[in-house]
Amino acid sequence: MNPVRTLILAAAGNDAVRRVVATAPVSRDVVRRFVAGETTADAIDAAGRLIGDGLRVTLDHLGEDTTDHDTAERTVRAYLELLDQLHAVGLAADAEVSVKLSAVGLHLGETLALDNASRVCAAAEQAGTTVTLDMEDHTTTDATLRVLAELRRHWPSVGAVLQAYLRRTLDDVRDLADTRVRLCKGAYAEPPSVAYTDPHEVDLNYVRCANALLAGSGYPMFATHDPRLIEIVGERARWYGKSVEDFEFQLLHGVRPGEQRHLAAEGHVVRVYVPYGDQWYGYLMRRLAERPANVAFFLRSLVTRS
Ligand SMILES: Cc1cc2nc3c(=O)[nH]c(=O)nc-3n(C[C@H](O)[C@H](O)[C@H](O)COP(=O)(O)OP(=O)(O)OC[C@H]3O[C@@H](n4cnc5c(N)ncnc54)[C@H](O)[C@@H]3O)c2cc1C
């Protein structure tokens, strides 16, 4: 992994850094680029605007690594309220939700995470949409895939996420290629024993996994902003005889918005990942780590403000 990226992800875990970043007023401005807002109403507004522009969305109530039952419960309720509102305003057909199992209690027990995720899936079904389980660091991969398998017994459309930087992923892709799978590069600091650390190797594995997904009968969701990968996926999809309804591209809120609209104008299904809520710290740090230019943007804002 790029050393700047490793450094930022390591600094993100430091309490002093967390206090400074999380409380600096300017953080709010930077956060706004990547996060739709703090409330359900903010999330619904952002979803409405993007859907109005011909895009689809997946909404993520920010929060992760929950260590107490109350926080897990509040997260579940936030999703239930969101799904209820999406249905009420008629957006549910173009909006799904993304859930991190650690936010709904995975670290408190797999059964709790499964119960809570089941409540969100049931509410999503009621609203007329579905759920994708975000993938977190490699220590949670097996537990996440076990919970996914349980959820799919009742809700087969629940989406999986697989990360191309993990050495195991091509095997996981082969197991899941006939289902709904989001393929991303992976956003966590992982050791070389489990993950490719050379970006070129990650890209090669992304293409291998993309081919395996396109060869399957499932619904692949290609989550990347990388122009080369987007082009290769488009070409490979044509080679496999896929039509534009057979797969989708996914990009993050605030990242390459022009490309989001360009792909949609070309006829592709494009889904924007829209995070909202006040627990934005971990999410922001991963976005900064992905691109040193974002750190420069952040630091410039600090200087300009002070
Ligand atoms: C819809 C979606 C869902 C995701 N879900 C997960 C998940 O569940 N688990 C997980 O581990 N990861 C997830 N990710 C993050 C993913 O793993 C990568 O960390 C992230 O997408 C950056 O990789 P990239 O493919 O865009 O390629 P990169 O090589 O990182 O970037 C390619 C180009 O895209 C642009 N770009 C990329 N990131 C940024 C940024 N932050 N700010 C500005 N420009 C940028 C730049 O132009 C860059 O040159 C998700 C990503 C997306 C788009």
| The number of domains | 2
The CA-CA distance between the termini, in Å, is 33 Å
Number of strands: 8
Whole-angstrom Rg? 18 Å
User: What's the CATH topology name of the largest domain?
Assistant: TIM Barrel
Oligomer: single chain
The percentage helix is: 40-55%
CATH architecture of the largest domain: Alpha-Beta Barrel
Strand order of the largest sheet: 3-2-1-8-7-6-5-4
User: Which ligands are bound?
Assistant: flavin-adenine dinucleotide
The stretches of 5 or more residues where confidence is low (pLDDT under 50) are none
CATH class of the largest domain: Alpha Beta
The ordered string of helix (H) and strand (E) elements is: HHHHEHEHEHEHEHEHEHEHH
Enzyme class: oxidoreductase
Protein name: proline dehydrogenase
Binding site for FAD: 135, 163, 185-187, 224-225
Pathway: Amino-acid degradation; L-proline degradation into L-glutamate; L-glutamate from L-proline: step 1/2
Structural topology:
Layout: H1 3-12, H2 15-23, H3 25-34, H4 40-52, E1 56-61, H5 69-88, E2 95-99, H6 110-127, E3 131-133, H7 141-154, E4 160-163, H8 169-176, E5 180-184, H9 199-215, E6 219-223, H10 227-239, E7 248-252, H11 257-265, E8 270-276, H12 281-290, H13 292-305
Helix pairs in contact: 1-12, 3-13, 5-6, 6-7, 8-9, 9-10, 12-13
The structure holds flavin-adenine dinucleotide.
Residues 134-135, 161, 163, 184-188, 223-226, 250-252, 255-256, 273, 287, 290-291, 294 line the site of flavin-adenine dinucleotide.
EC number: 1.5.5.2
GO molecular function, one term: proline dehydrogenase activity
Binding site for substrate: 100, 286-287
